[in-house]
Batch of 4 targets.
Target 1
Amino acid sequence: MPILEVKNIKKKFENTEVLKGISFDLEEGQTLSIIGSSGSGKTTLLRCLNFLETPDEGTITVRGEKLFDGASPVTDHKRLRDCGLHFGLVFQQFNLFPQYTALENVTLAPLLNSDTFSREKIIENGKHLLDDMGLADRMFNYPHQLSGGQQQRVAIARALALEPDILCFDEPTSALDPELTGEVLRVIRSLAGNHTMIIVTHEMAFARDVADTAIFMDGGIILEKGPARELINSPREERTRQFLSSLNS
Amino acid sequence: MFWTVTSSLLEGFAGTLKLFFLTQIFALPLGLIICFGSMSRSAIIKYPIRLIIWIIRGTPLMLQLLVIYYGPGIFLGVNVWGTDNGGRFTAALIAFVINYACYFSEIYRGGIQSIPVGQKEAGIVLGLTRRQIFFRIYLLQLVKRIVPPISNEIITLVKDTSLARVIAVYEIIWNGQAFIKSSGIIWPLFYTGAFYLIFSGLLTVFFASIEKKLSYFR
């Protein structure tokens, strides 16, 4: 059984239909990359999965549990929060909390969501995660004291701390200077295999090498999907070819 | 004479300080409530609150003092404030609190709206409740942003307290002016300026230290 089943997700803003029926499955431990030009609906799709937007139609099922059903959308705040916790999201702009240290950013939500009983364990786990991100010596720094690449790695640790079933990345390196993208991509690469991930990215080489499957989105639909290497190296659709060659030119 | 004047002015300044501190104690939290009202999703709450803010910010504080003190007697035929000093002080306090709460609410609103939406979204994605997002994420960032404009208002408030004398609330200028009639001297009135200066100087130092305390993050 796939860990994630997305069926016929539709989303309209005012009069523009941004998602026109998106369906895909994802197996546990697999990495999916979503590519496509800006305005194709990639980010909106991620935001729908993370309950930052409410789809107009469709269903989202994780491990067989239907988290969202457009036919009877949940309005209860508590239930919405619980559903959202199945997903983690790493933002393009990091969105770290400036008044907290790197470690506090990572532990804030777990500490607020749990009892004091596990406090020490949560802090230990936070330190461990930052260590994995190569930030052992940066735990007590505030976000403004960190480079963009370091901030994004803190943001990844923060998302991992809640142990989401599926970790999503929304163009995680787009706001970074070119020389800083490498360190972030390396960290994401190291997570592949152990985590189920969805990555919206413009880094085609990265998408090809790290992802198992890839989706090409265009105008709110999935135009092409398949094994990542195949889709990016030899796309079937003319529109996908156009998009990929426009990146190389 | 100097000591007589000084002790009389100190007495008046005590009235000034009482009005100043009580206004802040009530206006700072009330401003936050008005702010939430003016940002409410419900039009029935939002528009009446915005109307009130417009009226209060659009008319002189001196006029508001007069309306609150004399209004009930003129329009309702009841003297709610009594005839003693305490009643006049209460009326002045209410006028000051309403006036300053409206100004504060707009400063809060500006502060809240200047916090990037990504902060809230990060909180949502991390499963925080709306209350946790406000208190754990927004509040300190908000305080940092509003310290400079709020300190501006609060220093204005020190001086605005002198308006209370239009409804005969005893404060320092009232006492200073009394010497013109009683002793025929005007310098006590000018001397009051020193009290304002010293006090606003202390406030400036106080707010600078808060700003410094919050400079550990950006």
Target 2
Amino acid sequence: MSAGATTLARMSTLSRDEVARVAALARIDLSDAEVDRLAGELDVIVESIARVNTLDLADVPATSHPLPMTNVFRDDVPTPPLPVAAVLAAAPASEDGKFAVPQILGEE
Amino acid sequence: MATKLVAYDDAVKRYDPVLGIEVHVELGTKTKMFCAAEVSFGADPNTQTTPVSLGLPGALPVVNGKGVEYAIRIGLALNCSIAETCRFARKNYFYPDVPKNFQTSQYDEPIAYDGWLDVELEDGEIFRVEIERAHMEEDAGKNTHVGGADGRIQGADYSLVDYNRAGIPLVEIVTKPIEGAGDRAPEVARKYVETLRDIFRALDVSEARMERGNVRADVNVSLRPTPQSPLGTRTETKNVNSFRSVERAVRFEIGRQAAVLDAGEKVVQETRHFHEEDGTTSAGRIKSDADDYRYFPEPDLVPVAPSRAWVEEIRAALPELPAARRRRLLGEWGFTDVEMRDVINAGAIDLIEATVAAGATPAGARKWWMGELARRANADEVSLEALSVTPAQIASLESLIADGKINDKLARQVLDGVLAGEGDPAEVVADRGLEVVSDDGPLLAAIDAALTAQPDIVEKIRSGNLGPIGAIIGSVMKATKGQADAKRVRELVLERIG
């Protein structure tokens, strides 16, 4: 029995629908099998966080960021931009110096 | 199909409108918010990008300190608290103008919060708008749609993207629900955005040019039966980009939502598009799953923790804000409250101040900008600022009059020349030969001709009846094509008749 199946057997609290929804929001195309596997794997993470939540952390300041640094600023001084040719070299298609992209559905 | 509307007056009698306004302002920094690509208006497409603003793999952002300073300036001017510490967040969505597939923004920790702004309405009443927050974020690129009708996205074959704008620093200012405006809600909305624009300019954080999209407003409107009722369902009209449009969009939504409610239906929570050509709005996207932006803290940027010393330094250096400046100028210029309000509503305050600075009297400057120039701007349907005449030219026009070189009538002809691009007033006077005839020789010739032609009037004047002298002066003015100084003509006529 694989690790994934073991996890699944514990009855995931994260539903397949939720995994499929998050995948769709992130534009990740998952097969049914992948949804099953990820539901289990993500569930481990969710459970771990849930365990942290059971601790009394009243005295622990919230962590906004893992690095102990603040205010890393840059001066407002321009540096040379990328040459347009280099910029558009990364574009599958371009026209008039602009990136050409497929028909956009939805709204502006 | 025409949208059903309730007449505005009727709608606001039976429903209480509540607004919420989100204003985005593009900051006037030299470089973008998270990379050092230069920012300037009108550059060729994709000539102002770096790996960061293109979202290339591995590129790491660094915060523009000036952008943070400008955001704090805005927060302080809006009477906000400035966060002791705050962070950036990723707002995830997929759209070609956002190359990273997320916009770097702020979510739960904005840099400024809990402020207010006093907005002066047209009749001088002050309306206080509570500010929920002001946060830092970045602008998106610009899409151009190819094919289909009118460059609209609907029916387009494909789109072109320019990333020059992607990454330009923005501050988004969000109000708390604006309640109690009643039938003045559209005016409050317009004046609020106008007041913000004036503040951005005074703070020197943005050119704040509406027509360039430096300032953009999203306008939320909802109706409820009475001010005591719970808030109704709101719609959000996006990207309303002129003051007038803000007012019209609110007005239209009030009439439209009233009709929906009158019919016993529910207002749909959705984004709406404003149509400049007829002042209407139309349904856009219904709020849905796609609005789940999966915000999370931006791991590539460290928190911003402005020291209190820095905040106080910025506060101390804040320039005079528009409301204080108006009060000061009112005193200096000696206008009445009504005159001052007219000047403000006409958008002439900067022009008059500059004209006075160039040497004109306040009354003289006001006379031109609120009179002849306002008429011409109105006739051409442009703003006063758009007229091709500078405050300095108006000041020199005034001084030509004061020196007796030209009279009011000639001054208008000189103005014609200036507006037609013929140069400064003095040049126009010289080129068009508009100077007042001050040499008595030609004047006397014209006066004698007029006296000879109208002997009956001469008799009346001689017998002490000065009333008809205007007819003689008129003839002389006509003969000299208006280039005579009427006062001098009068003196000479009296001398002549003796």
Target 3
Amino acid sequence: MFWRSAGVDAGQIERHIPALRRFAWALLRDGAAADDLVQDCLERALSRWHLHRADGDLRAWLFTILHNLFRNGRRSVARRGNAVPIEDDAGHGIADDAAGGAAEGHLIWQDALAGLAALPEEQRSVLLLVGVEGFSYEEAARLLGVPLGTVMSRLSRGRERLHRLIEGENAPARPALRRVK
Amino acid sequence: MGEAMPIGEDDLQAWIDGRLAPSRMQEVEAWMAANPEAAGRYRAMAAELASLRDALRSRHDAPVPARLRIANLQAGRRRARSRQWRQVAAVCAWLALGSGFGWVGHGLWPMPLPGAAPVSGPTRPMVAEAIAAHHVFAADLGRPVEVASRQEDQLLRWLSNRLARPVSAPDLTGQGYRLMGGRLLPGAGGTPAAQLMYQDDAGARLTVYLRADRAAGGETAFRFTDDAAQGIAGFWWVEQGFGYAVLGQGISRPSLLGVAAAVQRQLLTLPSAPAGAPGQSL
């Protein structure tokens, strides 16, 4: 048993927590469940710190752990207990609307988020890792444990689908281009 | 092959992501000029990606809740280990001594409190408010909190804005309590006050109450308060211009002390987020 998370550099890990929370939230669309997932991820990272290669990419390692936990459904959603649920996420428009500014822009955001939620999980993960979190195609492939070609086709299909969800079903289906690589 | 490779889907995805090799850029742009309809679609997809990034930015920029701070997670791991060992030690002692000496209680060992010994003493308006708020809301079965912990980010941003200081929710899982949520309350003279509510697995609730308190008396050590009429007891203290109270009903004094010490420790080690506008970035 490995008891001491020796040599953990808290600051080094904490730098990535905001991005991990964003990724988890985009996967789950629930703030508490997302933070549970991030907490599980961090706890696992601390308990397995000795497996982490000092020269490896810490960010990719953390995202891999989080995504695996998500996919294995090992997140303990129940941990938060029976907190009283209240209105949906937009309900208490506390401070975050202050910067919302242009109502129209906000509408498009909602569309993009709703469209994202409607994508199959595989496509959603790729869109987020590449498009939002800025991983390269190769990094995303390693992180997800799939071939590069799979990442590219999920990306292409996911974006096409998101586009049609946002534009409406009558947007013309496109003649798919051949993947030449 | 002197001839340029035909434009493929991967090229267009890379164009959306801004990852196209410069050498390929010109060819892709020429293709887009020749295929305006498809080009419009890829431009729209790039715009959708941008709005997705915008939509998720506030998730990235939101203050990180206390329970995700590495120091707290590490402390949780240490506590879990020491709990394990206390239990093992307790069982060993019990086995060694035999039943004649009875159960060597685990979990009954009070946490050491840094600083002065807690004493009962003269109270302050802040404490009376905290007791009244506990009395009213902790007993509420239907809607004990105004904003539930599933919206912890929003709750803490709200309270931080209104109290004009960073408010975090102390992680009390080590003491067996989970955050339920919280609310804003009017303190004396209209001072905004925050109440955070926690619950253990058995349903026992405790509240953490805080507000600015610059009344005479300055900083105080932990003081015990016991409101016999309401059956509400707890610890309170004043530190750096803020008053704090940790209250419960039917919770043992050592447990309350352990919770109060954890609250005080965690609220002191707050990250120095800019007070007043923690949620403004989008």
Target 4
Amino acid sequence: MDLFATALPALADAWALILQPVVLGYLVLGVVMGLAVGVFPGLGGIAGLSLLLPFMFGMEPVLGLALMIGMVAVVPTSDTFSSVLMGIPGSSASQATVLDGFPLARKGQAARALSAAFTSSLFGGLVGAVFLTLFIVVARPLVLAFGLPEMLMISILGLSMVAVLAGRVALKGLAAAGLGMLIGTIGVADAGGSLRMASYDFPYLTDGLQLVIVGLGIFAVPEIVSLLRQDRSIAKDAKLGAGWMDGVRDWFANKWLSVRCSLIGVLVGVIPGLGGSVVDWIAYGHAVQTTKDKSQFGKGEIRGVIGPESSNNAKEGGGLVPTLLFGIPGSGSMAIFIGAIALLGSGDIEVGPAMLRDNLDITYSIVWLLALANVVGTLLCIAVSGGIAKLTTIRFTYLAPFLFMLIAFAAFQSGQNFEDILALFAIGLIGIFLRRFDWSRPAFLIGFVLSNPVEKFSNQAFQIASFRFRKSFEEGIDYIFSPIVIVLLIVTVVSVVLGLRQAKTIMAEGEVQSGSKRAPIVFLLVILAYVVIAVLNANAIPDYNMTDKIVPLVIGGITLAALLILLVQMILRPEGDTIFADKEMAGEDADAPYGLWGTLAWFAGLIAATWVLGFILALAGFLVTFLRVRAQAPWPKTLILTACGLALMCVMAGALNRDFPPGLLQHAVDLPWPLK
Amino acid sequence: MTIKTLATSVAALALMAAPALAEVDFSGKTIEWVIPFSETGGSAKWANFFAPLLSEELPGNPTVVVKFMPGAGSTKGANWFQEQEYEDGTLLFGSSGSTQFPYLLNDPRVRYEYNDWIPVMATGTGGVAYLNPEDGAKFDGSANGLKDVDLIFGSQGATGLDLVPLLAWKMLGMNVEPVFGIKGRGDGRLMFERGEATIDYQTSSGYLSGAADLVAAGTAVPMMTWGALDENGMIVRDPTFPDMPSFKEVCAATDGCETEGVAWDAWKAFFISGYPSQKIAFLPKGTPQDVIDTYTEAFAAVRARPDFAEISSTQVGKYPMFVGAGAEKATDEATTVSPEAKAYVIDWLKESYGVTIE
């Protein structure tokens, strides 16, 4: 009761702080800036916040908070635009949204999908805030109850969603997830510093691949290439069907799903060290498992949009708990947020254990500013969604060059290496073939995302468990099998069993015809070769660095087994079996007027030209050539569009103080920005 | 040509920066302070704190922007900086202990040479080690009672700043098992709070904002600080924690721990590089003296601000901020280690953790 006696006045103080016109003004300003940054895939909160940092120094705390929170809060909302409209996952928060949101856009229901997503986001944000208001004062012991075994179990629960998304041939889903995990282990191992599938002679890979690049490569590149080959608009027949009111109605019809997914979002968000990577997959899995007719998932099921979108804004609220209570950032943007808070005012607000005791009113202000920012951001997004949805009716050939431009720029921002763009291309190729042969791309991505947490938590939990076992057997067992672990274990087993039973009806890649044996077997052999090399490579790590080799070996072994069984099946089964699914046999891709390699060559051309001329010059040449040759646009239109594209890039990069990839030319001659 | 001109003019609009020609006057210029880490780390916080202050003190009040170039544990950014030559004084680089250690340990990724760079400012920090209450009760100013206790420590890696505590505990004869792979000292503290780790350390600011509360609540017992350097280069008690013994005192009181000899020299060299001279701001090689002086004066003016002690408390605490010649001396100490001490550390890393640096 004591707690509430202090909490209620603090809550009242917080509202008094927030409800000043100038504070609300800063909040709206932050939201608008956040939207402007967030619609660009791959930039998101970190870029936006770094932009604000110089202004934070000595600023009135509540104003600075309003500005920053406005910006952070809308990123998981605004990145929905690119996921739904273009199939480009804007950030890790919107990967699962792509699965059903983009098919809806292709059916001409972009406005419906967007407004359902935004309404869910809004609702999730509010549920998160209400929950946090009550929960934050008692959250500390709960957060501390989540040790390494518990975090490992949550990561495994996230991984178990592979079962739901595995596709028609469960082994292929398993192998895709395994391949994703193996690719996630590339680079210097966290624990012992061994190199895996990397070398110091080629330093790029030692840091591993960035999620942004893998997300864009796996989802965006294949869709862009496929649509471009078909030379049509995203929405079939260039018509927009359902309007934004339908989306709001859809949300209302599924409000309980939204409530449940919001709570999942807050609770997983609260756990430090996991953050957003698993939440939307768990919510998506939950949406699938609670839907009676599962046949529409992957083809445009609105529940597949509402679930993840309800959870991802709620997660931002949950993420405040470790950030504010422990001073441990749950995400990159939260890390900057903590740093920025120290600059505010006289610098006496310090996040960490003292936050609740000394600054409860500020804590509550943060929680509710986040909720308010969600409301403002959502209303703005819904207001513009009808208009932006019209993008899906444009002939895709006019959109594609700009999407290539955006994803190349986004990939480069992740590490500012030219190799980032090459990696995007390479992962894009993997994505194209996974899609073509109906290997689950979501399973691959889940594997990639969870590779690092699974490896880290299992190594650390193992080390601490063996330490406890050395003390006494009982202490070890207590540590591994805590009540939370047991509950999570049961949930995981149930979800795997149910998931496998349902997986056959969920076709993340839509209907895929089967064809001859040759192409699918060749692809399988290529994957097999990589897995064998990766396993041999891991095996070469000396035994005293067991922590660095055990996970790649185990995962590689399982993947290898799955691939070998698949190979045997492929040899034994007749042509036309589902195992030989191949998009090039029939359907949209097969009927497309343009070939795969010719289309991909455009993107390769942009990359090659960038290597020689630097990004901006290459882009200018690329846009002009593409619009003239491929789109057959007249000169005036070509020039205007090219100028718009270049201007957009320069203004974005200029405002965010970012560079472009330099080429050989820039090494030889000094050029002024943006050409340098 | 039209497109190129257009792009350039748009760019000019976006930047709104016209080059000025006056000597050591940065009016209208943009100074880029490159940090070889991501936006989320401690160096980012450090540079973001100093950037606006520096901007106020430099002639012409240029905009100072912090740029991030993360990768390969900061060696990527440092290698890049090595290749930069002086142009117009608008480039500044921020190095940290994580950049200095690979240099000291002959990491194969290192292609940079500290002697080429021109230090203009350096700041440091201290560190505090603490134990869980059960084992903390066995600590009596010496580590003699802790020798047969097994302890667990959440570590970011043996070749980073954690090298200093790990080596210190080893010299005290303590049996500390590191659990590698955590990200940031905050995670280490959380592991300690959950009871999974039984020993931990924090840098001074991390200790004050996080761990001091645990000590007050009785769930942690402070053990020692790493100490601080006095003007003669001797290790003394940390001014931020005058009531806590330094590692030097604890070592002297513990059987088998020597405060001289090769092990001690090795520890001290890495301690200096990782703590009292942890973060250093550099100008590129070839910078003319008048530009160096301009920066030195600007940083001195920042340090002389009447409110500096207050606003910098979470950044530099009570530790000296070195400018000019002081920064040069600090850099020198942070980047030199005797071959014997280096060999000792490399041997110990290989033997204890299987870490080979080749």
